[in-house]
Amino acid sequence: MKTIQTVLEKNYGFDSFRPGQQQIIEAIMNKKDVLAIMPTGGGKSLCYQIPAICMEGTSLVVSPLISLMKDQVDTLQAMGVRAGYINSQMDKSSYHDTMNKAMFGYYDLLYIAPERLDSEHFMNVIQNMKINLIAVDEAHCISQWGQDFRPSYRNIPQLREAFDYPVPFAAFTATATTQVKHDINKQLCLQNPHQYVASFDRPNLYFSVIPTKKKSTDLLKYINNSDSAIIYCNTRKNVETVYHSLVKKRFSVTYYHAGIPADERTKNQEDFIYDRKSIMVATNAFGMGIDKSNVRKVIHYNMPLDMESYYQEAGRAGRDGAPSEAILLYSSQDIITNTFLIEQGNQPHAKDKLNRMISYCKTGKCLRSYILGYFDEVPSWQKCEHCSNCDGNTETMDVTVESQKILSCIYRMNQRFGTGMVTDVLRGKNNERIRSLNFNQLSTHGIMSDYNDNTIKDIISLLISEGFLSLSGDKYPILTFTTKTNQLLKAEVTLSMTRKIVEDVRKSSKK
Ligand code: ADP
Fold first, then answer.
1. 3-state class of 205 per DSSP?
2. Which of 148, 207, 404, 499 is the most buried (most CB within 10 A)?
């Protein structure tokens, strides 16, 4: 049997393992289940490929991305590894050819899309093969809490019963919050797995959130023709608008979205990858599986729907380890658009996730700690000094006292009203409705008369997105307390907000 060190050196040409890799490989070879959470580019593939090469029999790799499957298999074949794939896009004769080879135990690795497990024929064939590992790539797809839930991933657990000998399961993902991790463990019935969670920190990335009212103008401050940059927009239409405006200004720019004809799309992608064009304007269709290491900036022209997508996209900056930036241009219109989008879809938990994304844009806390906290990592610092909330460029404002005033008012109004009414009482409005409810008698009536409507509403929305208030109700949304509310009322925790937002809001309300 080949040793893992020899394979690493001879097949891959690397001299040492990255953190976590060797332990994962050894666990698999000892027939233990594995759950590995490593950032994109962390080196997950090698963790299941090396055991597959070293062990007798065939390893099945379940992967959702048909386009990447072929690339991976080509690379492995070029390294002299016996790898194949089966997906819905291949013709009949290649399918039969691959299945025949598989049956005779030709492959070290066989990549399949999860839909394949629906096929009785396929299940019959693999039951007669010697399977030594089920590797589940992008394992978060099994969870409804993950950002791209794939119902067909729920077929994977049936492989548990398919063999009358023990087969280890190894799950890999780049994005897993506690809920997703828990779900992967449960759905895949992982038995006392070896767990490896790599740090998600990207020390060479500078994070910033830029509140702006004029994105098209502000964008120009962050781009130039010598640095490679990706600008992500939320719609194809926005991609085209931004692209055309940059062409007019003579930027070296190209664009990408799923509506562009395939050959043009490939050309644009290559222009960017081979540095013929510096700037790529794209929807989130661009980037998956693209390994361009010298991207200096990832700019989000619109707020993404959740932190997982944001961090994955932002993480495409600075793969080479050199200083790079992740910039999010944020306007309150983004919240309106995203809330609308989410209400159109029926993704469970989408609202919660959007709230966390909104908090990221409004928080006055260190942005890196916010991100790491989101992925359940406890950072070793309070302030990183390397994000727009830490380096003194954006002032933050403590809004703990304001929050307490708002919460007290909601309490006195018996937690039965929405944002508009609460704001009116806090500002001290004295209309008929307020008088008929006796709210003009409350001690909190008018305690925020020196703030404008938008500031109060902004703080309320931060309270909601940070989980200190919940918005519920059948007919119209009502603000109610959560289990966390008391912590803020007792000042056991504090809340802060970027001052820029507050100032902008103040100015706009004076008009
Ligand atoms: P992931 O699947 O986690 O996104 P990959 O498996 O594609 O990451 O690995 C990312 C890059 O790192 C690849 O180019 C791979 O060859 C390289 N790599 C992985 N492990 C090592 C190692 N031990 N030494 C050097 N390079 C490595």
1. strand
2. 207
Pinpoint the alpha helices (H) of 252-376.
262-273, 307-314, 332-344, 350-362, 367-374
Q: How far apart are CA 286 and CA 284, in angstroms?
A: 5
Residue pair 173/139 in contact (Cβ under 8 Å)? The answer is: yes
- How far, in Å, are 228, 278, 346, 383 from residue 236 at the CA level? 21, 20, 22, 37
User: Which pairs from 332-340 meet CB under 8 Å and 24+ separation?
Assistant: 334/302, 334/303, 334/361, 335/303, 335/461, 337/234, 337/302, 338/303, 338/305
Could you report the per-residue pLDDT of 325-347, keeping only the tens digit for each?
999 999 888 988 898 888 888 78
Q: 389 versus 132: which is more confidently predicted? A: 132
Nearest residue by C-alpha to atom 24 in ligand 1: 14
ipTM of the complex: 0.98
Report the share of the chain in percent with pLDDT over 90: 70
pLDDT class of 510 with cuts at 50, 70, 90: very low
Cα distance between residue 9 and residue 22, in whole Å: 13
- pLDDT score, position 500: 58
pLDDT digits (tens, 9 = 90+) for 366-376: 999 999 988 88
Of 8, 18, 61, the residue with max ligand 1 atoms within 8 A of its CB, to mutate for a pocket test, comes to: 18
Structure tokens at 496: 């802060």
Is residue 38 within 6 Å of ligand 1 at its C-beta?
A: yes
Q: What is the pLDDT of residue 89?
A: 83
Is 46 near ligand 1, meaning CB less than 6 Å away? Answer: yes
Q: Is 41 in the pocket of ligand 1 (CB under 6 A)?
A: yes
**Which pTM does this prediction carry?**
0.76
Q: Whose CA is nearest to atom 25 of ligand 1?
A: 14
Q: Ligand 1: which atom is nearest the Cα of residue 12?
A: 16
What is the CA 78 to chain-centroid distance, rounded? 32
3-state secondary structure of 34: strand
Tell me if 56 sits within 8 A of 132, measured CB to CB.
yes
User: Cα 47 to the chain's mean position, in Å?
Assistant: 22
Tell me, using a 6 A CB cutoff, whether residue 290 lines ligand 1: no
Instruction: Please count the other Cβ atoms lying within 10 Å of the Cβ belonging to residue 511.
Output: 4
Longest alpha-carbon distance in the chain: 85
Ligand 1 lined by 379 (C-beta under 6 Å): no
With a cut of 50, say whether residue 511 has pLDDT above it: no
Contacts of 397 (CB under 8 A, 6+ apart): 364, 496, 497, 498, 499, 502
- Which ligand 1 atom is at minimum distance from the Cα of 137? 2
Q: Whose CA is nearest to atom 20 of ligand 1?
A: 43
Q: Are 314 and 279 in contact (CB under 8 A)?
A: no
- The response to whether residue 381 sits with its C-beta less than 6 Å from ligand 1 reads no
Residue nearest to atom 23 of ligand 1 (CA): 17
pLDDT of residue 509: 39
Confidence of residue 504 (pLDDT cuts 50, 70, 90): very low
With a 6 Å cutoff on the Cβ, whether 68 touches ligand 1 is no
